[in-house]
Amino acid sequence: MADAPALDARDITVRFGGLTAVDGIDLSVAPGEIVGVIGPNGAGKTTLLDAICGYTPPDTGTVHVDGTDVTRMLPYARARLGLGRSFQDARLFPSLTVRETLLGAFHPSFTSSALTEGLRLRASRREERDAHDKLRAVLDLVDVERYLDHRIAELSFGTTRAVELAWLAGRRPSVLLLDEPASGLQQSEVRALGTVIERVRQGGAVVVIDHDVPFVAGLADRLVAMDLGRVIAEGPPSDVLDHSDVVASYLGRGRYVGTGR
User: Fold this and answer.
1) What is the pTM of this model?
2) Do 67 and 190 lie in a common domain?
3) What strands, in cross-sheet order, belong to the sheet with 19-29?
4) How far apart are CA 45 and CA 42, in angstroms?
5) Is residue 88 part of a domain?
6) Residues 43 and 113 in one domain
7) Are residues 203 and 161 in the same domain?
8) pLDDT tens-digit profile of 130-169?
9) 213-237, pLDDT tens digit by residue?
10) Domain tally, the chain
């Protein structure tokens, strides 16, 4: 792994009035590393991702993506620098087809003007052909080809989640933040999800938060456990899941049996 982190968030604090949702958290992720963030409801996990993405301005702290300080940048500017984000509710346009949605992932890299595209001039047609070639590569990563002509509104939740991951693959983010990707999926879909995420990240850094602890522990190189806005344990999954504070706050009083230990 490279020495410089792909994502480096330092001293992130987020307050909502008198409530401290995230309390001075540091999170550094190396290129190619998958970090899982676990914790009970209200631990501050999604708020931490929102602060990293720019949806919730932190009260204190800094965020660097591939060495660039993005702390004061708007979310779309962070996305252009390689920060990708999924949401719990798979935020895609319901009236678009899967094909239109995935082709839209490549549109920010187009250089043709709206006039050039409207008149279907040579430069515009060339970029459209390139986008279709890239679409084929995305379909090799996430198999949603059979749904290309279906509208997003017609898809099951699991298939919509797969399309969202395919869209993210098209953006080729250097840092991928996944907010409860296994939520609402059937167990067979969860088992396949880890393989899809491995394909989509293409060597980029990944931060994944989810309540499905076996799923996260099996996918992540390192776990970060949060409670009440703070990090209470960090390290290899087996060590974190056996940590007394994690057992007490999130996994119950008994030894967690999902680790295979």
Assistant:
1) 0.84
2) yes
3) 19-29, 7-16, 60-65, 68-69
4) 8
5) no
6) no
7) no
8) 878 889 889 988 989 999 999 999 999 889 999 999 999 8
9) 999 999 999 999 999 999 999 999 9
10) 2
